[in-house]
Amino acid sequence: MKEYDAVVIGGGPAGMMAAATAAAGGQKTLLIEKMERPGRKLRITGKGRCNLTNTRMGDEFLEKVRANPEFFRSSLSFFSTKSTVQFFEKNGVKLVTERGDRVFPASGKAWDISDALVNFCKKTDVEILCNTRVIRIDTEKKAVESVVVKNKRGVSERIFAKNVILATGGMSYPATGSTGDGYQLAHDLGHSIVEVRPSLVPLEIEPAMTPRLAGLGLRNINLTLLVDGQPVVAEFGEMDFSERGMEGALILRISRQAVDALIEEKSVEVSIDLKPALDTEQLQARIVREREEFSEEATVKDLLSKLTLQKILPLVVTQADVELTLPLLQLEPEQVDRLIAALKDVRLKVTDYRPFTEAVVTAGGIDVSQVDPRTLQSKQVAGLYFAGEVLDIDADTGGYNIQIALSTGRVAGRLYK
Questions:
Q1: How far apart are CA 317 and CA 152, in angstroms?
Q2: Where in the chain is the domain with CATH 3.50.50.60?
Q3: What is the pLDDT of residues 332-357, one digit of tens each?
Q4: Alpha-carbon span 111 to 305, nearest angstrom
Q5: What is the pLDDT of residue 222?
Q6: Which of 53, 274, 351, 386 could connect to 84 by a Cys-Cys bridge, CB 3.0–4.6 Å?
Q7: What is the 3-state secondary structure (H, E, C) of 276-287?
Q8: Is the confidence at residue 46, as pLDDT, over 90?
């Protein structure tokens, strides 16, 4: 009979941190990973560079947590962004801080972060069992008793443990093993699951617009998300268009609210301010100056080419109801006003969002009202703990979500009752 003090289900950053923390605390610990090795998703994070955290602390960090920031507060207090930096540097990974307070391995290789966690597990004598899936958690008198596992050959086995940490991740990038197994395991034990949906995900626009804009990248713009015509959130930065629709940092940051609105069948649009540094009067003055410098043969296209990128010009003039080929000498004052309005408010209808295969994280998950925020132990089942993306906690892009995984893993691994 196999018996452990703690079994950790899931070999992502939350699971590895939880397992090593438990083992370092003297607990005989088993880490179960259904893929061929731990940390597979972590190795591709941030386009293979792994933005593992940022330098923001306390409330400044929590402002970027979109779901249940107050629940997460105690975990962040226990294992902060500073703690994460110190942990990895102590474990041999040199880090650098880049624009936006984002922290990366100096090597630019996500493998270094994954390897550091795997090595930490080995150093603390965590036993790692790969190619194995947990199919059931058994309880007795509302307390964890054992887990039932099945290996890739279909052979089942029962493993006894008085503590189980569920850190199976969400449903984003399912090819890496994140297929939502933990939700079913938790639900089978009486936990409620907040509807899961993609977050930090590209958004689709009307099919006719996609090929016209694919390949366009916009920088230093303001982007506003409108739901049923009302502004919901505004962000400044960069976005891109591809054959998938809209993506890039700005789109990822507004995607959670957009996805929720689309699920509720509300009207969703984005408004793009192509010239946020200029107000209407300043833009009017700029256009006057530009017009004076052109020859008599110049057209509206020549003027707008001085103000923004060629690829978006057809969209601007269509919205303004002005022809690109119109000679500047024939451009009326009210047409100038319409062009300015279009430059400050390019509208695009959002029709859908991309699937979990393209989402960075999962929104939704195990209802945190059924979890003790101080220990991350279930209020329903003694000895059952949760860590990482399986919980209903998610945040903006910028290192926040990996920090959530590491902090909750550290807390859950203490196995405090």
A1: 58
A2: 2-198+358-412
A3: 999 999 999 999 999 999 999 999 99
A4: 44
A5: 98
A6: 53
A7: CCCCHHHHHHHH
A8: no
d(CA 263, CA 64): 22
Query: Six-digit token pair at 177?
Result: 């093993």
Token pair listed for 414: 């203490």
DSSP 51: -
Q: Which residues pair with 156 in a beta bridge?
A: 150
Q: How many CB atoms lie within 10 A of CB 332?
A: 10
For 312: left if phi > 0, alpha if psi spans -120 to 50, otherwise beta; the answer is alpha
CA distance 302 to 324: 8
**Architecture in CATH for domain 2-198+358-412:** 3-Layer(bba) Sandwich (3.50)
User: What string of DSSP letters covers 390-416?
Assistant: GBS--B-SSSHHHHHHHHHHHHHTT--
Say whether pLDDT at 417 is over 80: no
Could you report the per-residue pLDDT of 77-135, keeping only the tens digit for each? 999 999 999 999 999 999 999 998 999 999 999 999 999 999 999 999 999 999 999 99
DSSP E strands in 43-187: the ranges are 53-54, 95-98, 102-105, 127-129, 132-140, 143-151, 156-166
Delimit the CATH 1.10.8.50 region(s) of the chain.
202-353
CA-to-CA distance for 8 and 92, rounded, in angstroms?
24
State pLDDT tens for residues 14-45.
Answer: 999 999 999 999 999 999 999 999 999 999 99
Angle, helix 400-412 to helix 13-24, in steps of 10 degrees: 30
Q: What percent of the chain has pLDDT over 90?
A: 92
